[in-house]
Design goal:
Blueprint: E1 5-6, H1 7-15, H2 17-24, H3 34-43, H4 52-70, H5 77-86, H6 89-96, E2 107-114, E3 119-127, E4 131-135, H7 147-164, E5 170-175, E6 180-185, H8 188-205, H9 224-235
Parallel strand pairs: 1-3, 4-5
Antiparallel strand pairs: 2-3, 3-4, 5-6
Length: 238
């Protein structure tokens, strides 16, 4: 039996199908910056609607001690991120005041799996109303959310729908640095596309080297060297 395709694999595929191939070989370097880790941890630290700034400041001091015990961070990287985020806490708290009804109470890091669907994933937050929520530390588009996030939410909605035997109609993306939450309707067309992408990803994981898509951001890709080496090796045999 094939292992389930993770929702994160779908995110990789949408960036570039070759990232899925390299990841399946254990050749894909994974890296999250100290600020990304810190912002996600802060977003999940809020448990009450009152005194958001106080909660964030308290969590920041706690994470100063805890994060080096969990993550392998470069010297000085965490301190720089802590200093930067400390200056943003006030504006984060102000932005989040009107968003807390969409965030708490919640479950964090929810593991989901469906043998029937051949999908699995770890959801950042299961928000009120059984709403799948993912946390992003980058910038949102001018309107709505990025396509990659929309399809990942559709994948999580399939898993939640099967687990809870209920239709999941809404998802959301959190931008904690901006104090912003964007809700989106889950589309049937997106759920159908997730299942098609699942099948393509299975072929890639079985060893099929995908073509490099047009317009792929190769120059800024963390796997450029590994990708070129693998392509050159494959070219010797075909």
């Amino acid at each position: 039996m094939r292992p389930a395709v993770r929702i994160s694999d779908i995110g990789l595929y949408l960036r570039c199908p070759r990232l899925v191939y390299l990841d399946s070989l254990g050749k894909l370097p994974r890296y999250s910056s100290a600020k990304q880790i810190l912002m996600r941890s802060l977003a999940l630290s809020l448990l009450q609607k009152e005194d958001l700034e106080g909660q964030l400041k308290e969590a920041l001091q706690r994470l100063r001690v805890e994060l080096p015990l969990v993550y392998d961070l470069e010297d000085g990287e965490l301190e720089a991120a802590l200093k930067e985020v400390d200056g943003e806490i006030g504006s984060m708290a102000v932005g989040l005041i009107g968003q807390m009804e969409h965030l708490i109470p919640f479950e964090a890091d929810v593991e989901l799996y469906s043998e029937r669907l051949g999908l699995s994933g770890r959801l950042d937050r299961l928000a009120p109303g059984k709403t799948p929520s993912i946390i992003r530390t980058g910038r949102p588009p001018e309107n709505g959310i990025w396509k990659r996030d929309r399809l990942m939410l559709a994948g999580y909605s399939l898993l939640l729908g099967e687990r809870d035997r209920a239709k999941v109609e809404w998802g959301q993306v959190e931008y904690p640095g901006l104090g912003m939450v964007r809700k989106v309707a889950i589309r049937s067309t997106d759920k159908a596309r997730v299942l098609r992408l699942r099948d393509r990803i299975c072929l890639i994981k079985d060893g099929q080297l995908p073509d490099r898509p047009e317009g792929s951001p190769c120059q800024s890709c963390q796997a450029q060297q590994q990708c070129e080496m693998r392509h050159s090796l494959a070219s010797r045999f075909f």
